[in-house]
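Example record

The entry below shows one chain as it appears in the dataset: sequence first, then C-alpha cells.
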Amino acid sequence: MRFLVALLSILPFSAAAYAAVPEEGGINLQAAATRIMERLHWFHNYLLVIITLITLFVLALIVWVCIKYNKRANPVARKFSHNTPIEIVWTVVPVLILVAIAGPSFSNLFYQENQPDLEAIAAAEGDDPNIYPDAAAQGWITVKAQGNQWNWTYSFPDELDGGGYPVEFVSNPLQRGLSSDNLDEARGPRNLAVDYPLVLPVNRYIRYQTAASDVIHSWTVPAFGVKTDAVPGRLNEGWFLVEEEGTYYGQCSELCGKDHAYMPIEVRVVDQATYDSWISTLRSGDFEGAFGALDQAQVASNSDRADAETRLARAE
C-alpha cells in the first residue's frame, strides 16, 4: 500500500515536468519552461494581488454605501455636487496603480522582444538567473516556422542538406475532427499531437522566425511564454531558451480558417547529443529514420524514468 500511494503521488508531478499540456479544470498558467514564462508567471500573480485588492475595496465601498446611505438609514439626502479631496484621490490613486503595473510590464516586454547579445552574455560573470553564459558561448539555433492552412513548415536556415538547401519538413496534425482520426493516446494528446514535431536542444538560445504562406497564423507555445503572429509577406522574430527536456504543446492562436482548431504545435526538447543526431539524419534526407530514432529514444527515456520513479517509490 505504501508503494502504491508513493507511486500515485509521484506520477502527476513527473508527468507535468515532461509534457506541457492543458489540464482539465486548470485555473493557472501552464508550468514555465523558459525564463520568459517564469517572469510572466510572476507578473500574472502580481496583477492578481492588485486586482484582488481593488475588487475587495470596491466591494467594501458598495456595501458601506448600501448600508449607510439607504433610504431608511438616511431619509434626508445631503445636497452637494463636488468633493475636491475625493476627486483628487480617485484621480491620483488609479494613476499610481497604472504606474506600478507599467513598470514590470515594460520590463518583461523588453526582455521578451529584444534578442540578447550572446557575445556579451558569454563574457559575463556572476549568477544572474536571466542569462546563460554557457549557452551563449554555443551561439544561436535558428528555426523558421511558416504557417500554412493548416499545418506548419519548419526549416533550419543554418543546417543545409546535401543539395545546399536548408533542412525543412512539414508538421501535420494527427486529428482533424473526423471519424477516421487516430485517437491513440500513445501518439500524444488529442488535437495537439503531430506526425513530425519540431525538435530543439535543451539549454540553448533559440531564435525563431515566423511567416505565413496564405493567411495570418500565430506560433504559440504557452509553456515557453511565446506567441508571435505569422503574417504573409512579413518575417517576425522571437527567442527563448528551454531549461528542461520534455514535450511541449501549443496551437495556432489566430482564426486562420475552417480547420483552425486542428493546427497544433508540438515541440520536443532533447539533450544536445540527441538533437545533433536528429538534425544530422535530416540533412541526409532520411526523415522517417530521424523521427523514428527520436521516438525510440523517447520510449527508452520514459522507461528509464519510470524505473527511477519505481525505485524511489519503493524506497519511500
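Notes for this example: The longest strand covers residues 151-160. The chain is about 40% helix and 20% strand.
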